[in-house]
């Protein structure tokens, strides 16, 4: 991890937790991390129903930020069941994850949609967390780099360098999510190195060097030490292993901070 890039530990709750469960989790997380004085960001990607009540508890400087898990690209209109970027900003979300593999798989989200969503978020002052990564089949066919190239080109279309720097890139090989099959250190290093190089080419070396690229896919307390040592890995995204707070804290505490 480069000293000037603040490390991120992201927790993706997916479709889990009630109001009471979320407030309990947050209060304990704030108590455990509040006095540490560490330079890191803990981003909780929570269901829409929890954003406001959690963001209200975080009024003031904190290591912790609340994030959505999805957004629509239009600001308002006849899109039943959707939520927009201005609405997320109004709820107090500082970030929003887009393009998660479950959104791509179950809701047919494409890179073009991810790009429209990212631009809508930036316009409303909500920082995008853009998920990219290859399927198992694409990796077996040795297409990983081609897939990443296309995803970066399309998802970041019409981005300025400053838009890029506001954004977090979450590299999550789709075959590693929720499967227990974590990518190995060489696979993670190769993908992160490629992503940074490609961002340098698409934008500029300084902007690429300021952008956080984090890894997700079956991260646990057992593998976090090895993952966080890999060059160009600026933190991790954790799904299943973050639902239980003591487990998540083991991951948070294992992240080296500058
Ligand atoms: C995720 O949902 O983004 C994720 C990485 O899940 P898991 O840690 O369970 O693989």
CATH topology: TIM Barrel
What percentage of amino acids are in beta strands?
Answer: 5-15%
Q: CATH H level: which superfamily?
A: Aldolase class I
Structural class: alpha/beta
Count the DSSP helices.
Answer: 12
State the strand order across the main sheet.
1-2-3-4-5-6-7-8
N-to-C terminal Cα separation, in Å? Answer: 8 Å
Report the bound ligands by name, code or SMILES. phosphoenolpyruvate
* Anisotropy-based shape: globular
What CATH architecture label applies? Alpha-Beta Barrel
Largest sheet: 8 strands, parallel, barrel
Return the average pLDDT rounded to an integer.
96
Level-1 CATH class name: Alpha Beta
Number of domains: 1
Helix content: 40-55%
Q: What's the SSE pattern?
A: EHEHEHEHHEHHHEHHEHEH
- Which regions are unreliable across 5 or more consecutive residues at pLDDT < 50? none
The count of strands amounts to 8
User: What radius of gyration results from the CA coordinates?
Assistant: 17 Å
Structural overview:
The chain has 258 residues and is of the alpha/beta class. The chain has a single domain, classed as Aldolase class I (TIM Barrel, Alpha-Beta Barrel). It is 44% helix and 15% strand. It has 12 helices and 8 strands. It has an 8-stranded parallel β-barrel, surrounded by 5 helices. β1 (8-12), α1 (19-33) and β2 form a beta-alpha-beta unit. α1 packs parallel to α2 and α7 packs parallel to α9 (185-202). Bound molecules: phosphoenolpyruvate (PEP). The site of phosphoenolpyruvate has 13 residues, from β8. Residues 12, 172, 177-178, 216-219, 237-241 line the site of phosphoenolpyruvate.
């Amino acid at each position: 991890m480069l000293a000037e890039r603040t490390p991120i530990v992201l927790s993706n709750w997916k479709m889990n937790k009630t109001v009471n469960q979320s407030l309990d989790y947050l209060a304990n997380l704030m108590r455990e991390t509040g006095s540490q004085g560490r330079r890191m960001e803990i981003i909780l990607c929570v269901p829409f129903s929890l954003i406001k009540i959690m963001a209200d508890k975080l009024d003031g400087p904190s290591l912790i930020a609340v994030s959505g898990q999805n957004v629509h690209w239009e600001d308002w209109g006849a899109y039943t069941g959707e939520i927009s970027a201005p609405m997320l900003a109004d709820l107090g979300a500082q970030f929003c994850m887009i393009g998660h593999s479950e959104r791509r798989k179950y809701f047919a989200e494409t890179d073009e949609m991810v790009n429209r969503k990212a631009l809508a978020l930036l316009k409303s002052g909500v920082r995008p967390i853009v998920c990219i990564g290859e399927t198992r089949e694409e990796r077996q066919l040795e297409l990983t780099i081609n897939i990443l190239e296309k995803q970066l080109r399309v998802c970041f279309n019409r981005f300025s360098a400053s838009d890029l720097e506001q954004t977090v890139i979450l590299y999550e090989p789709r075959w590693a999510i929720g499967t227990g099959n974590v990518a190995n250190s060489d696979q993670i290093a190769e993908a992160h190195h490629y992503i940074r190089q490609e961002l340098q080419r698409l934008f500029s070396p300084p902007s690429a060097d300021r952008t956080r690229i984090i890894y997700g896919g079956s991260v646990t307390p057992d593998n976090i030490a090895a993952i966080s040592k890999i060059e160009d890995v600026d933190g991790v995204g954790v799904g299943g292993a973050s639902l239980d707070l003591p487990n998540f804290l083991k991951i948070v505490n294992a992240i080296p901070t500058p």
